[in-house]
Amino acid sequence: DGSPSAVLEGETLRSEDETRALPKIPLMPFDATAQTPWAVPFAFEDYLELVDWTGRAVRSDKRGHIEARLPRILDRLNIDGERFLGYANRLLEAFGTAIGAPQAMTSLCARRQTKYLRGIRAARELFAPKLAA
Questions:
Q1: Is the residue at 101 inside a domain?
Q2: How many degrees, rounded to 5, is the angle at CA 43 between CA 124 and CA 85?
Q3: Domain range spanning residue 20?
Q4: CA–CA distance from 1 to each of 15, 16, 18, 35, 38 (Å)?
Q5: 54 contact partners, CB below 8 Å, separation of at least 6
Q6: If DSSP codes are grouped into helix, strand and coil, which group holds residue 60?
Q7: Is pTM, for the whole model, over 0.90?
Q8: 47: exposed, middle or buried (C-beta count within 10 Å: 0-12, 13-18, 19+)?
Q9: What is the pLDDT of residues 86-126, one digit of tens each?
Q10: Helix extents (H) in the chain
Q11: Residue 37 domain-assigned (yes or no)
Q12: Are 32 and 46 contacting, i.e. CB atoms less than 8 angstroms apart?
């Protein structure tokens, strides 16, 4: 069909036309009040701020510049910004299906009645007490 594609570690990337044809899958709902147990427990605006900040800080084509002002969500979640950026390119690889503090991931294991959840080691590192400034 002449559309560009690339192979990345055994997976063929889809063309823009193929991607547009895929069904739209909505994001999980956001709930900053934490009243909905299955929702992402922060505001959509906080998510957008984090995505924007991460996108500007992590660049493969140049040395990154990290603004002094971290997204508020990192402070509220007590996550060190430098550690977060260290995981930003590999969050799904490091965590799998759930991302959270070690205690939250352990609780999720209990609710799922499983003994293992990928990412507990990464959670201990990412959610460790913030480094002194």
A1: yes
A2: 40
A3: 7-126
A4: 10, 12, 11, 49, 42
A5: 84, 85, 88
A6: coil
A7: no
A8: middle
A9: 887 787 788 888 888 898 889 888 988 988 888 889 989 88
A10: 16-21, 44-57, 72-76, 81-88, 91-95, 102-112, 120-126
A11: yes
A12: yes
**Is residue 133 assigned to a domain?**
no
What total of structural domains would you count in the chain? 1
Instruction: Give per-residue pLDDT as tens, 109-118.
Output: 898 898 888 8
51's tokens: 């995505």
Q: Residue 115: how many CA atoms within 13 Å on its side-chain side? A: 0
Residue 14 in tokens: 């889809």
Strand, coil or helix: what is 121?
A: helix
Q: For 61-88, give one letter per residue: b (16+ CB within 10 A) or e.
A: eeeeeeeeebbebbeebebbbebbeebe
Interior CA angle at 97 toward 99 and 45, to 5°? 50
Helix, strand, coil % over all residues of the chain, rounded to 5: 40, 5, 55
